[in-house]
């Protein structure tokens, strides 16, 4: 059985098979259809305005939103100043640290003052 397979493979190897012209034409037409086509670039017309110019000064709308958010957060923390922020500032200003309670217990949150 193995000798028969070896003979079959040897005869298949000896005879070089060429694809037909119709098959090659179909393959080449499919390949040509899948090739990238050149893209024509169209210049984009920008709409300008005061806010667009201001955003361009800061590096775009994303940067302007980040700067605005930081400003609002700074104003909020400056006027409201949460209780925990004062104790953190005291720790940074002092030389020795005994204990800082950054997360108060539930009792402190439920206590009425």
**What radius of gyration results from the CA coordinates?**
38 Å
Mean pLDDT: 80
Structural class: mainly alpha
Report the total helices.
Answer: 6
Distance between the termini: 98 Å
Helix content: 55-70%
Strand content: under 5%
Shape: elongated
Sequence of secondary-structure elements:
HHHHHH
- Uncertain runs are none
Secondary structure: number of strands:
0
Major beta sheet summary: none
Map the helices and strands.
Blueprint (H helix, E strand, L loop, with lengths): L1 H13 L6 H14 L15 H8 L3 H20 L2 H11 L12 H5 L3
Helix pairs in contact: 3-4
Report on the structure:
This protein is mainly alpha-helical. It is built from six helices and no strands. α3 (50-57) packs across α4. The model has no long low-confidence stretch (mean pLDDT 80).
Summarize, please.
The chain is mainly α and about 110 residues long. It is built from six helices and no strands.
